[in-house]
Design a protein that fits this description.
Blueprint: E1 3-7, E2 10-17, E3 22-28, H1 42-47, E4 50-56, H2 72-86, E5 92-96, H3 98-110, E6 116-120, H4 139-151, H5 153-163, H6 171-182, H7 189-196, H8 201-206, E7 211-216, H9 224-230, E8 237-242, H10 249-252, H11 254-266
Parallel strand pairs: 3-4, 3-5, 5-6, 6-7, 7-8
Antiparallel strand pairs: 1-2, 2-4
Helix pairs in contact: 2-3, 4-5, 4-7, 5-6
């Protein structure tokens, strides 16, 4: 099992699939999840010849649970460290949900060493509303979810898993997400708390790599209007809308998602 030390002796779990020489892709899961989120995406990338790296973020899955720093910036630094550790050349960073904010933080650190960014229902540049950003909920809403986790972690996670998809995906998919969430430690909650007050608008405006936004129009976690509004903040971004889809287009309309992702990768110089 491959591990990378990123905070003293504490380490994260990662996988490195070398593929057939295509552009490297780093897949970054959302809050409380694991690299298994991408089980329907990884085979398509490998079949197309892409090198792929995945990780379990701090506090999640097979990674250590007792990190001191659980901020989005720390998670982004882990992704950047993994890119450097593996010697990935101008990879595309693909982040789902909170992972979107994580890959933006990583891209800011890597600079010109990033070939592109994909935001899959990405919770960036802001997850909560502000006076000049009328999208998302409030910090109090986030704290209410975290309070629910403190009182009933399994039950709250079951509710979250059931709300991810707008299209019917079956109990097996929902239960698989629930099982992933249950592998997280309580310190992983601090990453969502960090996200609740994060503002990455200046960072995304400074990105110069191509960006692909993929968003479900029925997303109840990251409002589609927020993602659509963010498009104009990037120097070079394209938005793909998924009608009738919620927070996980790669699960709810996997065929379209994989086609759009592979087309984006093929179009990079």
């Amino acid at each position: 099992m491959a591990r990378l030390e990123v905070e003293g002796s504490r380490s994260i779990y990662f996988e490195h699939h070398r593929g057939g020489g295509g552009r490297p892709v780093v897949l970054v899961h959302g809050a409380w999840a694991t690299a298994h989120s991408w089980d329907t995406v990884l085979p398509a990338l490998l079949a197309a010849g892409h090198e792929v790296a995945l990780l379990d973020q701090r506090g999640c899955g097979r990674s250590d649970k007792d990190f001191d720093d659980m901020s989005i910036e720390a998670l982004g630094a882990d992704v950047a460290a993994l890119v450097r550790h593996l010697g990935l050349r101008r990879p595309v960073l693909n982040g789902w949900s909170m992972g979107g904010a994580v890959v933006v933080a990583a891209a800011a650190e890597l600079g010109d060493d990033v070939g592109g960014v994909v935001l899959t229902g990405g919770a960036t540049p802001r997850y909560t509303a502000a006076d000049d950003w009328p999208y998302g909920g409030t910090v109090a809403d986030v704290e209410a979810v975290l309070g629910g986790l403190a009182a009933d972690r399994p039950g709250t996670f079951r509710g979250v898993a059931g709300a991810v998809c707008a299209k019917p995906v079956g109990d097996d998919v929902i239960n698989a997400m629930w099982a992933e969430f249950l592998q997280s430690g309580p310190r992983a909650d601090d990453s969502l708390r960090s996200l609740a007050t994060l503002d990455q608008r200046a960072i995304v405006a400074a990105l110069r790599c191509p960006v692909l936004l993929m968003a479900g129009k029925q997303d109840v976690f990251v409002a589609f209007d927020a993602i659509a509004a963010s498009k104009d903040l990037f120097a070079d971004a394209r938005l793909v809308e998924f009608g009738g889809v919620g927070h996980a287009p790669f699960l709810e309309d996997g065929e379209t998602y994989r086609r759009e992702l592979l087309a984006f990768l093929a179009g990079l110089s």
